[in-house]
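seq as requested:
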Amino acid sequence: MAERTAEQLESGFFDVRRQSPVTTETVRRQVAEPGSPVLVDFDHTLFASNSTELFISRCRPSLVVALIDFLVRVCVPWRLVPAGRGHRVGDYLCVALIVVLTPWNLSLWRKAAPALFEQHRAAEISAVLADVDRSRLTIISFGMEFVIRDLLRASEYRSAALLATPLLPRPSWFAGGKTTTAVGAVGEDGVARAVFVSDSLDDADLLGACRSGLLIPQQGRRVSARERLYLPMRYTARVKYSRWYALDQFLLVDALVIAIAITRDAASLLHFAVIAPLLLLSVMSVYEIGYFENDVHGSKIEEHPVLDPSVPQYRDYPIRVQAWVWAAASAAAGLGTAVLLGELGTDELLAAGTSWVLLLLVLRGVFFLYNRVRTDVRVFVYPVLQALKYGAVFLVFAPTALGVALVMSQVTAMWATYVVYRLGGRKEDLDRDLLGTAAFLVAAGLLGMASIAHGGPFEEGAGREAESPVPLVAALLWSLARACKSPVMRRVRARLAT
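struct tokens:
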């Protein structure tokens, strides 16, 4: 007998009102009763996937769709809306915007949907419902009506009643639960006589209102459109590290280090606070390809790879091509902004762009090598990766001597943490921020000694003399703030624990 797929799970019916399991044969008898309406949930019940996520993930162009998804469903805190209804609004707004801005996806979906239903059909549930008269069957879902209708178009459920979110819903649609929707379709008496099958206790209201509310295991694995929609740093924040770590590292560490390293005065610091994140995003888009490759392919050569459980869900993540698109776009935005702010001349733009492309190619090559050498050799490739990440901007903007010291202190801190990890230690036991601060203060002290002993201020890369203490003050404040981070966070956690 062939092995069951994720879409063909055992039903395992559980009667919520009676708090007891129910056999499949008992369910067959219940749904066969002529006077009992049969209500069935769609996502992860009749359909072993999530129809909304599947639709969003298949819409094109994926760059536009990924931005819509990010702005609507990630940036807006829908979780703060009571009873989980915010997510329903977020899903609806995301799909509605995609339809309005990319209307061709309606016809593309209509063509692909029937085959997708057959691919993700929940076979066990379909077998139980096989003999139910379609006039007594109602599919009830908070998914999008046109999405589900197209999925069912060529199936035996095409004539069944469907209650789902229309493209132009009333505001009240998002306020009620499925009981309200079901009563509107079959009446209160019909709900009281009905058999309802669902995979989720989010439907507890209707499970409890029906004569027989049957809870089943989730059919198919949980899916997210974001597993197939690329955005820079998404893989880093969702799989490689945490969202907070990615945000903290990107904005408060990497981008600030780069901005301070090339600043000359207060005005340029403000300019580079805008330019540096754009250029860093370009670097990190290519850098992230290495992260992805390290997890999906590079880990094969490690004896004990440390992988996030969600890595298999990203096997088809479209990062290899789209990351380069984002890298080029963010680099163009960064260099263009530098021209507008007067930090880069128009006559320098072509040379800067060419240098940047070559740098990205070198970075990709080094990470490619890193993922294919032995782990003991990686210890010596790792600092090169870090130097390329932080020092890429030096190709376009001249750093100060102090800036180079700041970058080197950060590279040293990252490298030391990695060495501890590779030698089998706990990298959490090493305060990386404090180490980086100490390294910077030592380097800055040596530069200061040289300046005092030999006269003259620090010199910048282009031979210009530093006219402002802003770079030194900014570097010191940043280093001290990072050194204080760990003690402060420990106190905060301790207070929250009590």
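Residues 230-493 form one domain.
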